[in-house]
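Hello support,

Our group uses your service weekly, and this is the first time we've seen a run hang past the timeout. The protein is Chromosomal replication initiator protein DnaA. I'm not sure whether the cause is the sequence or the server load. Input pasted verbatim:
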Amino acid sequence: MAFPLRRVTAMTSERFINGPSNAAARAWLARNQWPDGRLWLWGPSGTGKTHLLTAWAHEHDATVLDARLFSRSSAGGRIRVQGNLAIDNADSPGDEATMLHLLNDAFAQGDRVLMAGQLPPSRSHFMLPDLASRLRATATTATGEPEDDLRATLLLSLLADRQLVVSQSVTEWLWRHLPRTGNALVSAVERLDEAALARKQPITRALAMEMLPDLLTPEG
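Update from on-call engineer: The timeout came from a worker crash unrelated to the input. Re-ran successfully.
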């Protein structure tokens, strides 16, 4: 039986893979101040937003929250946070009033708030006018899809995080034939790891062709 047990990867600044596609985001995160104390980080899935958010939170003693889990208590209570705040999946909050209260509290306390989502506030839909206007006035920065050098390093890092030993010929073949997105690399490694574990066999080109038909580009 294969259990979904995974070694937790430390999302620290030292383990983050730097590249031109995330240089602007890293520059913003390195600033000591942001306009009104807020910053919105956005970009495609698999481009390191959660990693950057988690690393920033660790360095600035911030509380990390997942906006999808926000809910309004039937007793009328709400989340209260002291200190800096990092909100992941900020473009899809479970309860907008909770998010608005958190932003108001942070501003009143002089704390900083880092938010991350796949879309910028201008392209996200919020029902509460006060929340929408507050977020659209927030400074934004973005991560882009990884360039070739970063993609190659990311693929090797994802394999190493799962302690997978794959031949150089297979990793180079995967790099050439997988879509040029971070999300595709993450999805491919997850699927190959699960298949190799279930079948008790190494990751080969044949296994990749079988498990990733919707991701791989045709042979040249």
